[in-house]
Design brief:
Strand content: 15-25%
Number of strands: 21
Number of helices: 21
CATH architecture of the largest domain: 3-Layer(aba) Sandwich
Mean pLDDT: 94
Length: 558
């Protein structure tokens, strides 16, 4: 049999899993892998990032966009710890991801060698599984298991450490076949039991979220709620699971619950929770629902048994892939009663009215800009964002989900609340599908965390359009600061660079917008720029969110 090195075998295993793209920053600890990639450059595209944190966000976005594991290569020690932000995001967002980390030689372990880390200790609570491959003969076994862990059950990140001496060992092992995800399936009796409970309910509501959805699952969700006249709420940054133009969609249960959403969740007598985790955001810090005294019927469908009865005990717990569950439910005869249908119309109307926010302070009104974007961007736009108050705009004021023509507008944002995710995600989106329009929203503080990935975009011809909202402050923290300690500004002001000049240096078309009436023409120029564009929107710092002003927060606090 042909001998190969552990590194060569690793690359062959990746190709056997149909991996054709990976992200990373090169490092001396996995030089053997980089050399093995040289021979497969026509089959595998290595995207050379500028920081491991940016690369991790790119891999995480790849997992969200494709449903396949995002692949990340980083070097030991500092490279691995830089990447931890994206690994943590993948865990909290349930995104499939496989991270390969260079490691010291096995003979040096335990001596605090150069850049040595115990990866199981560092990432043990941050990843689904952490493994170190000490024997080249076991590469096929452990790579297959890593991919299976990443895509099966609740998807998530897996960290694989690669000791330098293992990578140059010779082996006669051969790659295994492509791993298929292990997905639990609902049974007919469970689907019938759900419909029976739904028929008896007076105030039912459906809450959906999580990962592992596909187009068929989204379509089945749409049919199920339409046939049964059910209100639908999505979890934080899961707006693209359902057509936001649907009369059944009433909004998202994100930070700062809208009154109508709170009403539905608090007054409902049956919650059908599909693929959601009952975390802090959905429960409003567990103030909306009391884990000790949950006063509603709960049907909880989730792909992982670890999430069922984790916080709230369900009246009916079903372990199932969301796509299979919704397909089964959509095939059931609809319930005959629609007791809360009129109430759904009221909530939907409130959601639609909220699409037009109050006039914003300053000379650039984001409400007007969002109305223009809502009417002009393509129906299959991919929107990305990082974290900050600016992210309320794309999360609340654009349409997402599948439309009647089969186009799906996607929202790729960190449910873990990670700053700096938007720009890398936008680069990935253009690499995955250059034909799609990609629109990134970034704040001034948010952008500066991974803005250097514009160099990655330049190198590989990725051309997103970036809207950079510059208000000269860390807006979210300033908002909390003004509420808790009004008038005592500390550490939240920003002195920013010339963003227009910076973007131009990376080959992007760039322009500063200082008046609302100038945006439409500037945006048109941006969309026509062949190498990508950045528009810097000068936002009044008084208006730190669509729902709050500094003066208003100070008055409320006092």
């Amino acid at each position: 049999m042909t001998k190969r090195t552990g590194a060569q075998l690793l690359v062959e295993c990746l190709l056997a899993q149909d991996v054709d793209m990976g992200f990373g920053v090169p490092g001396e600890s996995y030089l053997a892998v980089l050399d093995a990639l040289y021979d497969v450059s026509n089959s595998f595209r290595f995207i050379n990032c500028r920081n491991e944190g940016g690369g991790a966000f790119m891999a995480e976005a790849y997992g969200k966009l494709t449903g396949n594991p995002g692949i990340l290569f980083v070097t030991r020690g500092p490279g691995a710890t830089n990447a931890s932000i994206g690994i943590h995001t993948a865990m909290q967002d349930s995104t499939p991801m496989v991270v390969f980390v260079g490691q010291i030689e096995t003979s040096m372990r335990g001596r605090e060698a150069f850049q040595e880390l115990d990866y199981k200790a560092v990432f043990g609570t941050m990843a689904k599984w952490v493994v170190e491959i000490d024997d080249a003969d076991r590469v096929p076994e452990l790579i297959s298991r890593a991919f299976s862990m990443a895509i099966s059950g609740r998807p998530g990140p897996v960290v694989v450490a690669l000791p330098e001496d293992m990578l140059v060992q010779e082996t006669q092992a051969v790659p295994r076949g492509k791993v298929q995800p292990v997905r639990p399936l609902i049974v007919e009796s469970q689907a019938q039991a759900i419909m029976s409970r739904l028929a008896a309910a007076q105030r039912p509501v459906v809450v959906v979220g999580g990962a592992a959805w596909n187009d068929a699952g989204r379509a089945a969700l749409q049919k199920f709620v339409a046939d049964n006249d059910l209100p639908v709420i999505v979890t934080f940054r899961s707006q693209d699971l359902i057509d936001n133009r649907s009369p059944n969609y009433i909004g998202d249960a994100g930070f700062g619950l809208a009154p109508e959403i709170r009403t539905f969740l608090s007054e409902s007598d049956l919650i059908i929770a599909i693929n959601v985790r009952f975390g802090e955001t959905l429960t409003d810090g567990y103030r909306l629902f009391d884990p000790a005294h949950f006063d509603k019927q709960l049907i909880h469908i989730h792909i992982s048994e670890a999430e069922l009865n984790k916080v709230f005990q369900a009246d009916l717990a079903v372990m199932s892939c969301p796509n299979a569950a919704l397909s089964a439910l959509a095939a059931q005869p609809p319930v005959q009663n629609s007791p809360w249908g009129a109430r759904t119309i009221v909530a939907r109307t409130a959601w639609e009215k909220a699409l037009i926010p109050a006039e914003q302070p300053g000379t650039v009104d984001m409400g007007v800009i969002m109305a223009h974007l809502r009417e002009t961007i393509p129906a299959d736009t991919i929107v990305t964002n990082g974290a900050g108050n600016f992210a309320i705009w794309p999360g609340r004021y654009l349409y997402y989900g599948p439309n009647e023509a089969g186009q799906v507008a996607r929202l790729i944002g960190p449910q873990a609340g990670s700053m700096g995710a938007g720009v890398p995600a936008a680069v990935t989106a253009k690499l995955v599908d250059p034909s799609r329009f990609v629109l990134c929203f970034a704040g001034d503080g948010d952008f500066q965390m991974n803005g250097m990935e514009l160099a990655t975009a330049m190198q590989y011809g990725a051309a997103p359009v970036i809207l950079l909202l510059n208000n000269g402050t860390y807006g979210t923290i300033r908002m909390h600061q003004e509420r808790e300690y009004p008038g005592r500004v500390s550490a939240t002001d920003l002195v920013n660079p010339d963003f227009v000049a910076l973007a131009s240096a990376f080959g992007f078309y760039s322009e500063r917008v200082e008046r609302t009436e100038d945006f439409q023409a500037a945006f048109k120029r941006a969309t026509q720029a062949p190498r990508g564009a950045l528009l810097e929107l000068m936002i009044d710092p008084e208006g730190i969110s669509p729902r709050a002003t500094i003066s208003g927060l100070r008055a409320a606090a006092q």
